[in-house]
Amino acid sequence: MQMTILAITLVLMAVVAIVFSWVIGQSTQESGAKSAEGAETYRTKLLVGMAVAGLILTVASLEPWPHALAADAQSVHVDATGAQWSWELVPNKVPAGKPIVFSVNTTDVNHGFSVYDPSGRLLFQAQAMPGYTNHVSYTFDKPGKYEINCLEYCGLGHHNMTDVLTVE
Ligand code: CUA
Questions:
Q1: CA 74 to ligand 1 center in whole angstroms
Q2: Cα 91 to Cα 17: distance, rounded to the nearest angstrom
Q3: Would the pLDDT of 72 be above 90?
Q4: Nearest-5° angle of CA 94, CA 85, CA 152?
Q5: Ligand 1 atom showing the smallest separation from residue 85 Cα
Q6: DSSP character for 125?
Q7: Cα of 161 to ligand 1 centre, how many Å?
Q8: How far does residue 70's CA lie from ligand 1's centre (Å)?
């Protein structure tokens, strides 16, 4: 499903790029020699500069991808399964200071797996989707009780869909 969405996105981006370059080509032909050549050159340089800057920014911001998995021997694995209206965490006790890799899944409808620190601050969340397992990695610095909530409205018992993850 996600690969299909990616493919559609890439095709649509290619279409936009083709239309865009066609429009630029047309405008260059029509402007002719009469237009202010200096402004034209400046505009082209500005456009190329912005495109290069955009490319660099895109690549640079992909570097610290937040969902990259720390799947080394040190990491601990937790299965987080949502169902109307509860979470099942196996195990529900994890150590502090080690990367915890959560495999987030659901047995029925969409749920929003979210983890809050003891002061009630949202640390991270991942979508629980039918037929698909989302992975998210997080390292807890301090021991404590971390509340699990559902961030996707999933029916009458949505507000009661909470659990606790103990970090030791
Ligand atoms: Cu599960 Cu809302």
A1: 31
A2: 48
A3: no
A4: 85
A5: 1
A6: E
A7: 6
A8: 27
Q: Per the structure block, which two tokens stand in for 101? A: 């890799």
Q: What is the pTM of this model?
A: 0.60
Residues with Cβ within 6 A of ligand 1?
A: 82, 85, 111, 150, 152-154, 158, 161
Of residues 4 and 127, the one with the higher pLDDT is 127
pLDDT in tens, 25-36: 887 666 555 567
* Omega cis (within 30) before 85: yes
Residue of minimum CA distance from atom 1 in ligand 1? 111
pLDDT in tens, 82-112: 999 999 999 999 999 999 999 999 999 999 9
Pairwise CA distance, residues 77 & 102, whole Å: 6
Cβ–Cβ under 8 Å, residues 86 and 161: yes
- For the beta carbon of residue 87, count every other beta carbon within 10 angstroms: 22
